[in-house]
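Lab notebook, design round three. We kept the backbone fixed and only want residue identities now. Task for the bench partner: fill in a sequence for the structure below.
Input structure tokens:
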């Protein structure tokens, strides 16, 4: 997705997010609530058994890095985030929905799925 397309998607996302809807932009899914903004990244693994805590943390970091790049490329997203805490999620797409793997907020990791080391 080029910068212009990203900016257009972010603009559309902000309209829907303001009304409490979720919105997918590239590989990330956004949701905005009162004082919290959720960013969900989706693991690339095709089976939960293949995910370790180490790989999950790597993918969560990649989610955060991608989101930060989006904020730089689309300043209106950064403006929308003023006053909101950001919560990052890593989830597994099981076809009918997502299975939470872990969350991070304020540099604190919370494990949702029991993974091997």
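Proposed sequence:
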């Amino acid at each position: 997705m080029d910068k212009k397309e990203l900016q257009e998607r972010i603009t559309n996302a902000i309209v829907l997010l303001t009304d409490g809807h979720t919105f997918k932009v590239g590989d990330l899914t956004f949701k905005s609530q009162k004082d919290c903004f959720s960013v969900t990244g989706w693991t690339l693994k095709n089976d939960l058994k293949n995910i370790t805590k180490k790989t999950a943390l790597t993918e969560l970091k990649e989610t955060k890095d991608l989101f930060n790049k989006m904020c730089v490329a689309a300043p209106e997203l950064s403006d929308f985030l003023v006053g909101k805490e950001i919560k990052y999620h890593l989830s597994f797409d099981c076809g009918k929905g997502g299975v939470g793997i872990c969350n991070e907020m304020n540099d604190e990791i919370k494990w949702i799925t029991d993974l091997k080391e």
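Keep this in mind before ordering anything: The chain has three helices and six strands.
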